[in-house]
Amino acid sequence: MGPIDGLLYGFTIALTPANLLACFIGVVVGTVVGVLPGIGPVGAMALLLPSTFALHPATALIMLAGIYYGAMYGGSTTSILVNVPGEAGSVVTLLDGYQMTRKGRAGAALAIAGVSSWVAGTVGVVGIMFAASWLADLALRFGPPEYFAITFGGILLLSRLSGGSVVNAFVMVAIGLALGTVGMDSISALRRFTFGSVQLSQGVDLVPVIMGLYGVAEVLLLAEEGVKRASIAVVRLRELLPTREEWRQSAAPIARGTVLGFVTGLVPGPAAVLSTFISYAVEKKVSRTPERFGTGAVEGVAGPEAANNAATAGAMVPLLSLGIPFSPATAILLGALVIHGLQPGPLMIEQRPEVFWGFIASMYIGNFMLLILNLPLVGIFVSVLRLPQHVLATLVFLLCLVGAFSLNNSYLDLWVLAVFGLFGYALRKLRVDPSPLVVALVLGPMMEKTLRQALIITRGSVVEILARPLTLAILAVPAAAFVVPPLLRICRRRDSVVEAVPGS
Amino acid sequence: MTVARLVPLVILVASGFYLTQAMKLPPGTVAKPGAGFYPMAVAIFACVVALVAGARVFLSPQAVRPEAPSGVTDPARRRRVAGAVGALAAFCLTLPWIGYPIAAFGFVSVVLWGLGGRWQAALLTGALGSAGSYYLFGVLLGVPLPRWPW
Predict the structure, then answer these.
(1) A156 at the B interface (CB within 8 A)?
(2) Which in A34, A218, A228, B36 has the greatest CB count within 10 A?
(3) pLDDT tens sequence across A35-45
């Protein structure tokens, strides 16, 4: 089935009442989650995951993905109106978005953010259609060595690109890989690190870990900060239209942000956050008046908002085509598919086209719903911010607990949630990013299985594994990420020394 | 002993413990890796990373260290966090004995009151939160939540 045929088939799936409702619920929840500082899309997806067990796999995926990209829309609302980022991918938007609000251009900022997000999200879905299909065809030639290279290289690249020091990232990776070995060995069925516990034989579930690191940790931080009341700018419907000049200034940043964001999304790491910083830096660099950035430049809103939405689309490509998630959010989506008995990857597109194409088509519909929800109805979402934050935080805390218990009716999951909640709080205080831990926890078992299979196939020859062309090509990318920056630094240092020597 | 120096030590001790446990598993051979092969590799990686992190802190004081946690000195902030953590631990410990509705009611009331809500509002929200979440998860979604002990 070609991309266009597939998309048309996907619309027949996505336009069913159940899937339309799931898409609507997902994007509304995502927008609310994005508006509310605190619980982010990952925590919300983890919370809602148990409620999708009874749904059709396509419906579950549609709803959960709606939360993910819906949060990108909602996060910009809080950044622009309140000068507080609703979620991490909207941090950069407040640099110029709030300044536009201070100049009385809040409506224009919201409209540009909404339209940028819609254009990028829609173009991003086109990218998924073609890139995922192409990559899935390529992946049919992958064997255990190539999958090992992707998982190993992905973890290395994530460590390099996540915020903070590489050593801290490696510590998180080590913890995640170690956690992934707890439970029954998939090849020999031996129990590892269970200390006699039957419950630990099932391994450490991903969802309580994520809920703890992102949900409970955030609530503990809110508890520490105390109750705050936000000062919210009022926006009237008639003030929503940008001027012709503002639209003209936004067009090129939207296009650049879309491409940058989509490509960033393909790479392991905090794609939505990273893409916004890259886009902002690029817009400032190419602008003829860079001094306007930080004072209300429309390009500073349009580019990053396009980038973060395109990045969420790009992040879906490795998940859908290879079955490999490179971020906590796509790890949740993988978890949802596995719970429904599906293994995402090249075969899912052929064997379960209704899930793949239905999901793609729903992203078009979801982006359109979000454009309508986030412009005329922005006042409704902003009113959520007027609710007492301590009540919301407490109820979210309770939902995390009952959500974790409901996964497997296991008290162990509650304790995992509690321990990782404390751990996530400590990491936030130490300013260490926990996402390498989550990705390592998901990719670790896959990496182990493919490594052992590759060694068995090659009779223990590591050289034979690394000498395969696809494996070499895949590992070249993280190798370059580690080798090139220090080389560039050395060259620059040498150039500056040469320049400093008189007469050279 | 500062936090910056304690963290790499804790990681090293944990990595060492993980290594000792991994060594109890059959490693197999490179051509036929056993259940202990990969955990030992992870353990060695973890020990190396912990040593590097420790070296950065102990041997190069001017190098980048884990920053000291922010905001820990204010007693009111510490009390709020301690209260939330205590309520979390109490919920996990008491849930099997007193059932979900009572545990949830106590949890929400205590946390809300600790965050600065009035005790009447805390009790009311606790009751509504407990009943609402029990209905949503226990009745609508069919999750077998532990009920009251009698």
Answers:
(1) no
(2) A34
(3) 776 667 887 88
